[in-house]
Amino acid sequence: MDRRAALRSIATASLGVIAAPALLRNRYQLFAHTPAEYSARTIALMRESTVIDMLCQFAFDDFRTDNVPKALRWRRDPSSFTEVDFAQFRDSGVNVLALGSGPANYDGMLRFFAEWNGFVASHSEWFTRIDEPRDLASIKRSGKVGILMTTQTSDHFRTADDVDTFYALGQRVSQLTYNMQSRTGAGFLENRDSGLTAFGQEIIARMEKVGMVVDLSHCADQTTLDALQIVTRPPVFTHASARTLLPECTRCKPDEALRLLADKGGVVGIPMIRFMIRPAPPVTVQHVADHVEHLIRLIGPEHVGVGSDLDMAGLANPMTKEPGIGAIANQPNFSRYNAYFAANGGAHVDGLDHPKRLFDLTEALVQRKHSDATIRLVLGGSFARVLSAVWK
Q1: Which fold has domain 49-391?
Q2: How far is CA 179 from CA 143, 217, 385, in A?
């Protein structure tokens, strides 16, 4: 079977119906939920790449059954997760997703990891935990979805020895701080950025010793720069964007930090949160592609990836939910996000609130004439390089 026939076979087997005119144009309607058409090259790149989303939080609480969040139900009763549920993960084109979640305390995180390890073990026919480079190398062939155990906080590390404990439980990436001050450093919403603490320096040293990747996504500027100065292995911003394009959103990283990240061999993951891509609407996949291109020009494609900060269905963290404890919008200095929302209240980029959003990004990059090599780096090659380098 030649390449064109193979691509036609792939497309025909996918969700949705392919109209004959689309075949004649070498474009394919893959998914029933959208009339969007994708080029043969986009389909091939998604099929041939190991696609990594460095922040895809499985399912947010908006997915509820009998008022119980589905993600919580799935973790605590793995039998409630069905083949129908798995279909959206399988068909998304994402091969590895990083959880990037969990409680901000030791006991809560122990339970969180126990639940996720139980869930993955209960569905070993569909999921596998990504622990080491050979897991990344084999996940595409396996037909499964890889779960990368990561957190958006290091508050569960009471001492450096706890890094070893959670590494043994499967954690492979840890974000140094969340939004506020912690024992390791300052988050970007803190009143005063005091920089990396002595404890933070100790935690980074232990993380590098055991082979855990340092994530600086939410750190304040001085804390970010302090950490970048001392790391000896490639660090990451799993989900961040360039402040040059959004000067009012201080959650985004300045060029100095992005360049230093690249100098250290690290990677930044492009989020698909609307106010981290464009300062005001409209905001579409084309603006995400604009951001990708800016970072490629600034630091090179080998330092650019994807960290959507959405769940698999395309929902973002419900920041503005009812005024409950823990809602992000209730945190001090939330205005630093310069946040704005879609008509339905969501924080997603318009048109990307669905599981197949990386097909859309790939298509945008294909249309802009980027090389296959560059697109493969963005889809997962850049993050695979860093993960493998640190884990070994």
Answers
A1: TIM Barrel (3.20.20)
A2: 36, 10, 28
